[in-house]
Structure formats: structure tokens, C-alpha cells
Design a protein that fits this description.
Elements: E1 3-8, H1 14-27, E2 39-43, E3 58-65, H2 70-88, E4 95-102, E5 106-107, E6 110-111
Length: 112
């Protein structure tokens, strides 16, 4: 049950959202999760200052129930960076990816 929150300082068209959603749905498999449980929260036009500048930037957070391997996280970071950079024209060195491992996750009135 991953949740990916994508905060960007750029606009994201509905067409780009659909492309990014599809690519993230495939990328999440790198940590043995599936798109069938993936939720994505797009937050565009955020006021992000990074390295002292307000240039195009992104903060991507991946919350997931349980854990993944270090190598899985490494592969997913590379994939997310490539997707966001390629689709939104944000330089890779202006993209942060943060992971949060969650022990308790509720869904449909119960906890996993």
C-alpha cells in the first residue's frame, strides 16, 4: 500500500499526470509493490526553495506499509528521478526522494 506524494514547483497537466501515474505504477514494482494498491497525490505549483533558489524542484515522498530492501529503494529512487526529470523537465539534482516505512496502515475500516 504505497502512497506517493509528488510536490513540484511546476504545473502538471492532466495528460502528464496520467503518464507519470502509469510510469510510477510500473516503478513501484521495484520494491515488490503493485499499482493495484498505489495512491498518488500530485501537488503542483508548490513554493519550493532548494539550494537557495526557487528554480523548478520536486519533493517526492513514498510512504509504504512495511519495508523494502536498500537496493530496492536505490532502484526506485533512480526510476522516480528519471520519471520526474523526464516528464516535468526538473533537473535530477533538484529532486529529493524520501521514504517512510509505516507499521500501521488502515484501509476500509480495518488495519493491516
Amino acid at each position: 500500500m504505497p502512497l506517493i506524494t509528488a510536490k513540484t514547483s511546476t504545473a502538471i497537466s492532466k495528460e502528464k499526470e496520467a503518464v507519470i501515474k502509469e510510469k510510477l505504477g510500473k516503478a513501484i514494482e521495484l520494491i515488490n509493490k503493485s499499482e493495484s494498491w498505489l495512491m498518488i497525490d500530485f501537488q503542483e505549483n508548490c513554493h519550493l526553495w532548494f539550494k537557495g533558489e526557487e528554480s523548478p524542484s520536486a519533493m517526492i515522498e513514498v510512504d509504504l506499509f512495511g519495508k523494502a530492501s536498500d537496493s530496492g529503494y536505490g532502484a526506485l529512487t533512480k526510476a522516480i528521478t528519471d520519471i520526474v526529470s523526464g516528464e516535468l523537465a526538473i533537473a535530477p539534482d533538484r529532486i529529493y526522494v524520501k521514504y517512510n516505512e509505516i507499521n500501521h496502515w488502515g484501509y476500509s475500516g480495518f488495519n493491516f
